[in-house]
Each structure stands twice: as structure tokens, then as C-alpha cells.
Amino acid sequence: MQSFPELRERGFVYVDKTRYIRKLMDDGKYYFLGRPRRFGKSLFISTMRAYFEGRRELFDGLAIADMENEWAAWPVLHIDFTGQDYTVPDSLEHVIGHMLEDWEKEFGITEIAETDNLRFQNIISTAHRLTGKKVIILVDEYDKPLIDTIDYPELQERYRNQLRGIYGNLKKMDPHIRLAFLTGITRFGKLNIFSDINNLRDISLLSEFSGICGVTSEELRKYFHAGIAEFANWRKCTVEEMYEILRVNYDGYHFSPEGSPDIYNPFSLLNALSNKQIGEYWFSTGTPLFLVKRIRSQVLDLEDFNCVEVDFSDIENVPFNMEGDPVPILYQSGYLTIKRYDAETRLIILGYPNREVERGFLRQLMDIYTSPRAIKSAFNILKFKSELQKGDVDGFMERLQAFFASIEYDSFDLLKLEQHYRNVIYLLFKLLGYYCHAEYKTANGRIDLVIENDSYVYVFEFKINKTAREALDQIDSKDYLLPYRFDGRKLIKIGANFTDARKNIDSWLTE
Q1: Separation in Å, CA 482 to CA 435, 439, 454, 477, 478
Q2: Strand 201-202 and strand 30-34: pairing?
Q3: Exposed (0-12), middle (13-18) or buried (19+): which is 390, by Cβ within 10 Å?
Q4: How far apart are CA 421 and CA 419, in angstroms?
Q5: What's the CA angle centered on 400, arms 395 and 404, to 5 degrees?
């Protein structure tokens, strides 16, 4: 539920974030907050709107009630870009036009200016003059029109110019504005939409605002303990065990390099408590199409995603065309989070925040690397797992061969076939719950893939258009088994050859 008034009027649980509103009022004037989708940005905007409209009765018992002596009503202009498909031509014009019409009616403006920019200026100055209060401007998902049209460059450029004109008014009308707060998923670098707002403060990575959206561990115990106890009873486990299950699946986000509390994904957390079921709720709402396309076009070592090193500046801004390294996009979109930070070098280690994100992301990658038919084949045939559990290599390889045969031809990356094969196998067995290493480094080279379970260590070497014997000989010549020589588990070497012609495994040998 994204409506603060409805949450309060109907007596639902509300995680109190109102102290941040007072801080925003006291500390500055123009703000930008970036957070992943479904993380509570719209609810926070709704809370701010109710506060600035002077609806004091909704805030009884909340933190800000003790901070306010005077509850004034300010004129609020709420710009909401959610819930619209902007790939439809003229959709942005219609959204902006309807908002302007509503405000003109609200403030009794009858003389309509010729352009949207002039209309917006007139609305701001009129609202200030009529109420005697400077205007509050709240923008929800400023970047949605731009993200929706990432593959429609002409339409996107048109939207970009329109939005720059609208946001440019924030500087022109500065004497009439008390506060402007903009939210979105991405902070685009070199976009120039905000170039006229010299003092726009990006609070997305500041520790003092790291808990502004989402649920902290302390908030979880304060507001949801009764629901978690009920969930534990339903699941027949202890309450502390239930807290740990929720932590592993939904906790782990950090929105500041230093001083950030652990943040739970609010959408998944609330769905799990409501349904009394652990699920991949955030992913069920869909991965943004622009993100899927960018990942598919990159040369990726998938295992690196759980421990990727970047410079601090890399995650602050995303290139406007979203080309190049996908890691900053993955961070800002919520698929990776901050794990460690070195203040001296300004290097950040990013990784998956929790189990839900890792499994959901790997499943999305499997969709990208294969095809719906292959996915159905893989996850309906769980004998993959049982065969590896008992060391039946030939049965497993035959099933893997059938799996690759079910992948549609155009799903293969013909320019990077060896990596494509390795990534597909890596994803398959990560999703089946195995401990995997892709491109595992040893003293003598890199093993293509290592899969481990309690009884076996499987060492794979892949070749393309060569022979399985060459692949197996490389494992021996480079002594790839050395790190596992005293492991105690059974070691199995697998050399496999793929062919361009078949787009499949041609042959394999095992020892």
C-alpha cells in the first residue's frame, strides 16, 4: 500500500520514517533520492505530501509529531510519473498536460500560457501568491519516461528536452519554492536535465539517509514482531529461526559505503509476512527490460557478480545510454549492494544482497542465456541433481546434451560460444543449489568450471571444435586437481567438446 493517509486511517502498520522529513526541511532545499523499484519511494512521497498539506491528525504518535509546534499547510505540486507506458508517443505530453490542468483549476488560473514551461511557472508563482506559502514540489520516479524509451532514441530525446524544460523551472522559480524532492531508480550522468539546478543534493549514498526507504533490522523487530511470531508458529519453527529465514532471504541492502544499517526489501518482506510463505516476490514484478538487454550484450563472468570491485564514483552515475559496464546499473537497480568499502582507495566491493536476489537474478540470466523451452526442460528434469549426487557422469552429460539441444538457435552468443556454454552450465547448477566456481584460478591456469557436493568434486574443461581428449589432457597437464588432492571427496575429471555446427556437446571423456 503506497498511500500514507490510507495506511493511517485504516490502522495498518506504518514504519515511521517521518523524522527524515524534518531533516530534509532543516538541511536544504533541492534533493534527489535514488532507490530500487518497490522500495517505498512512492510511500515516502505520499507521507511528505500529507505532512506539507498540514494533515496533522495522520501523524499522531509518529516521530515528527514531537518535532512540530506549528502545522502549516503548504501548496504541494505532486508530479507522478508512475503507472504509465511512455513508449506510446505523446504519453508524456498527456501526463504533463493533465497535471497542469488540475493545478490550474486548483488555483483558479484562467489565462493559460502558450507552453508547458510557462504554464508551470505561472502555477508555481500563483500558488505562492494565493497561499502566502512557498511551493513544495514532489516528483515520483523522474526517470521512468527515460528508462521506458531507452530503445527509442528519438522519442527519448524528445522526452529529455521536455523534462529538462520542466525541471529547469526549479531554478527560474527558486524564490517561490520552499523544497523540491525528486526520486528515481537511476541518477543519469551527463544527462543535463538537472544542469540548471546547481545545488541539487543527491542523498542516495549518504549514511544519514540510508534508512529512508526499506525496513531496518530494528524496525523489523519493533513493528512486525507479532506477525513474525505468527509466521513462525505457522511454519513450526522458533521466532528467532523465523527472523534468520527472513534475514537470509530479504535483508542485506546497504545504501551507503559507511554507516548504513542492514535494509530489508520492504516489498518482499511484507508479502512474505502476509502470505506466510517465503518467495521471490520482488522478482515476480518483473526485471526492467532495459537491464536484461544490457546484460545480454556484455561479456560477463557470472561468478564475479557476487564480489565485484568498483570505484565509488562508478556507482554514483549511470551513463545515459546505459552502454558499457552493467555493474553501476545493477547496483542502482537493486541487484547488487555494497558489501565493503575502503575509504582510502575509494574502492567498493559489491555483491548480491540476499538469497532472493541471487536466485532471482540467476534465473533471469538463465532466461537470457537459453530459451523458455530450455528452462522448462531444465527444471522439470531434476534428475540432473540426483545424477551428480551419485556420481553418474554419463547420465548427467547425456541429460546436459539434451538440455542444450532444447535451446533455440538464436539464444546462442555465436561470438563468445565457450563462455556461453560455461555460463549456462554454471547457472543451471547454481540454481540447483550446487557450490560452483567458474574460471577457477589455480597456480597453473584457470579451470573452466568446478561443481562440488558432499561426496564429489567435478572438474570440467570445455573445448570448441577440438576433442574431448584435448580437454581432459589439459586438466592433467596443468594439474587442475592439485587443490583438491587431499580433499577427501571423490574427484571426477570431465573433458567436453562443443561444436559450432551442432551448438551442443559433441563428445566427452571422464576419469
Answers
A1: 18, 16, 18, 11, 9
A2: parallel
A3: exposed
A4: 5
A5: 150
Q: Which helix (H) or strand (E) holds 167?
A: helix 153-172
Q: Is residue 25 classed as helix, strand or coil in its secondary structure?
A: helix
Q: Which residues contact 261 (CB under 8 A, 6 or more apart)?
A: 210, 211, 216, 217, 218
Q: Would you list the DSSP string of 184-196? A: ES--EET--TTTT
Assess contact for 388 and 434: CB atoms under 8 A: yes
Burial of 422 (0-12, 13-18, 19+ CB in 10 A): buried
Phi, psi at 181, each rounded to 5° = -130, 120
3-state SS track over 427-486: HHHHHCCCEEEEEEEECCEEEEEEEECCCEEEEEEEEECCCHHHHHHHHHHCCCCHHHCC
Note the pLDDT of residue 147. 86
Q: At what angle do helices 116-131 and 91-106 cross, to 10 degrees?
A: 30
Res 282: pLDDT:
93
Q: Do the Cβ atoms of 367 and 350 come closer than 8 Å? A: no
The pLDDT score that the predictor gives to residue 192 is 59
pLDDT mean values, one per 10 residues, the chain (511 residues) = 96 96 94 94 98 96 90 96 92 96 97 94 97 97 89 90 86 93 79 65 95 98 97 97 98 95 97 95 75 63 79 78 75 93 92 92 79 58 75 87 76 64 81 80 81 90 93 92 89 91 89 93
Provide the pLDDT for residue 322: 60
C-alpha angle 55-59-62 in degrees, rounded to nearest 5: 160
Alpha-carbon distances, residue 329 vs 172, 222, 313, 399 (angstroms): 32, 33, 13, 36
By the 10 Å C-beta count (0-12 exposed, 13-18 middle, 19+ buried), 372 is classed as exposed
* Cell numbers standing for residue 357: 536476489
Question: Contact 86/144 with Cβ under 8 angstroms?
Answer: yes
In 109-226, the DSSP E strands lie at 135-140, 177-184, 188-189, 201-202, 215-216
Given this model, what pLDDT does residue 321 score? Answer: 59
**Do 1 and 7 meet the contact criterion of CB atoms below 8 Å apart?**
yes
Which residues have C-beta within 8 Å of that of residue 259, sequence separation ≥ 6?
207, 208, 210
Report how far residue 59's alpha carbon sits from residue 54's, in angstroms, rounded to the nearest whole number.
Answer: 10
- Return the SS3 of 342: strand
In this structure, what C-alpha cell is assigned to residue 183?
Answer: 526520486
Question: 168-200 in b/e burial notation, b at 16+ Cβ within 10 A?
Answer: bbbbebeebbebbbbbbbbbbeebebbeebeeb
| CA distances, 342 to each of 311, 330, 347 (Å) | 10, 20, 5
